[in-house]
Amino acid sequence: MILNKLEMYNFRQYIGHQSIEFSSDSEKNVTVLIGVNTSGKTTIVRAFEWCFYGKNAFDDTVLLNSEVRNNMNRGDVQETWVSITFVHDEKVYTIKRSFKYVCSERYSEGDKLIVNLNKKPEENLSLEYLQSDGQTKTPIDRANITESMDRVLPKDLSDYFFFGGERISSIADRTDLSKAVRGLMRLDVLENASNHLKTVVKGFEGDIDTTGDSNAQRAKDGLETYTKRKAEYEQELANYDKQVQYWLGKEKEYDAQLAKSNIEQVKKAKQDRDRAQKALEAEVQRLSQVKAEMVRAFNTRPYAFFGLPAIKASLEMLEVAKEKAGEVKESVPAMEQDAVDYLINRGYCICGTRLDPGTIPYMKVMEERRVLPPEHVGDAVRQYKDKAEGYLAGTEDFKDKIEDKYKEYRATKRRIVQIQNEIEEQSKFIIDDTDAKEIENKRRDAHTKYIEAKSDYDGCSRKLGECESNIKNCESAIAKYAKNSAKNQRTALLITYSQKVYEWLLETYRGKEEIVRDELQRRVNDNFAKMYHGERSIVIDDKYRVRYSDIITEESDGLKAVKSFAFIASLVSMAKDKILDEDDMKLGQFYPLVMDAPFSNVDEIHIDNICRILPNTANQVVMAVMQKDWEYASVNLDKYVGKSYRIEKDRDANGKEIETATHIM
Amino acid sequence: MFDKDFRITGKHANYWKDLCELAGNVPDREQHANFKIFSAYIDAYIVCPLIGYQYDRKGVIDNSEEGNAGMLAEVISKRRQELKYVYQILMLVDEESEPDEDKRLYRAFTFSEENTEDKQLIEENIKVFNSYFLGGLEVLHEQFVEQCHDDDDYLKTMFDFVRRFYEEQDSEAIKDGIEKILNQ
């Protein structure tokens, strides 16, 4: 960041519009603002803080110029603002923050004038940058300004660059400077990245799901078993099929032989037997139908049959209860209390009306609930009877139906036996012929074998079907787990990558940090030696605190200030010299130094030394100094000064300075 | 009430399987391959409590043998009205679990689980219902599965069981009595 311009409007003691342009010349990089004590030097540093970060460090928090304020009448509006133009990453930015004050009352108390302003002024903030054409301005969304500023110069670090003389001595004494150093050297970028990667790795680890593995193995084992079994069944089935076909063929063959028989009696007997055989098949089918029908009859509301005695007892009991209860209050048919509770719980009625407790609709519904069972027996009896009637209807002949079906079952069974006997009879006729007898025996044998083979075939076919559906189940399970496992593999790969990048970042980070510490120690010592007259050496500890390596003696404020200067100058020069930059890693940054009365605690001889060093270490130096200090400083600094301003107050008719009307000349 | 999955374990689960057609995936199907007098679990669940009551038989879960059978809530909720009706009958007539007539009257018509007392009451009632269910399973298992060897036996037992019940209870007279009350 390099500062171009600061503008202020009615800001504190600075009346009207004030503008300071900062020197950005690479040789003459110093801008001085010279003023007497209380002239408003500190306000300049605070203008930066307020404009950049909204930090208001004044005791009296009203930022509007008092002169302007005193001239306001009730309802008047006045504005104060600060605007800063700066260059960052080769882009020109302008940030502007303003407060709009409204006068709420104005009155006099004795000879004192009181002007009160609305407590909370309306705040406006804008940040825009110039496109490379040098003309087009692009505003940054209001919500992102704070974040953007933090990226240009983090708020935490700002007091290393914008500070007053009274603060400088404490800088090098802070308990932990590591955050600031990392921030300034942009090591935090690496640190944040490696921390982020750590959480990324954690996240990936949580994504891995290993529960599927054992299931997948089981499914694989199952698939193997079933596939083997399927092949066996297929082989078996083919064998059975061969047998079925063989015996069927044999039976037909013998049938044909019998049909060819010349004996009329045999022929007729065979025809009769074929007819009987067909009839037998029909009856067998009928038999299984009747069985199913009988079970169905048994399953048709059996509770209305087996419950008859209990239903009667319950009805009688209710009749007596009804007599006792007397008058019957009418209620909605078939409604029960839990139905009302349901409506109340969901908050609205079936018609859509809201049922909020205390409202009339709610009370009406609750009134209905009170006449419902169990609270009112009278109507409960009616409801119960309705139900009983409904469930009993159509079951009066439960027993008869079962009886009928059973009789039909018996009859069918008898018919089957009859037909079987008939077939037996017919066979006897066939057996009368000796040749035919032998053929008939063979035919009967073939038929039996056929039935057996067919039964084996059907059984095997069923097992094969089961086996196939098991195979399908296993395959879909494997596919499902494979999907998980592919995901796991991918996640494991991602973890390895993240881990590697994390390690690489950490290594880089540690390496760079070491460079920073060594270099900082070298430079601080170097600068300190140049600024301080005595022989002292300095070490930087693990928290970047600055320590003397020799015995610790009581330090004067002046010595502390020199130490802090040495520290800041070294830090800024390291950032400027881009000591950490590599081909594809640009970490170096420019920072300006904006100081208010920096020499107030420093001996003259040290002022000399500091002034020799500062312009060379920082890219840009802005300092507000007292006239007397400047006389010492200018000896060494003058050749670096690119711009110079005076801070002056207006004088009244008597030549007395007016506190509230300061200008920058 | 009657809106959750229902499951029993032990001996009665096996009885239940012996009596009902088994749908879906039943690993021990082969052990219950006999003739079935009920088309589904739920059919047995609705009628058995009444049979248990009528034969004065209550059952308790007996885990001395392994068994496990149950129905999903959606199967139960489809037949919820019939279940509620059977439940109401039992709650009115079962003096053993509640001798006080007024209290039987109250419990038979309490379906609202709004307050904790009623909720507890309903829980107790369901326990009574289920113990008669187990009792009914025992009765039917003794009558059918333990006596019958083939389809013929089962069908004959079914016929006998219905006829015997009809005669023993003098159902003709009961039917007339019910009709009279309903027509009042």
From TrEMBL, chain A:
GO terms for biological process: double-strand break repair. It holds the Pfam family AAA_23. Keywords: Coiled coil. Residues 5-237 form the Rad50/SbcC-type AAA domain. GO terms for molecular function: ATP hydrolysis activity. Residues 216-297 form a coiled coil. It comes from the Bacteria. Gene3D superfamilies: P-loop containing nucleotide triphosphate hydrolases (3.40.50.300). Heterodimer of SbcC and SbcD. Belongs to the SMC family. SbcC subfamily. This is Nuclease SbcCD subunit C. It comes from Ruminiclostridium sufflavum DSM 19573.
Automatic annotation (TrEMBL), chain B:
It comes from the Bacteria. This is Uncharacterized protein. It comes from Ruminiclostridium sufflavum DSM 19573.
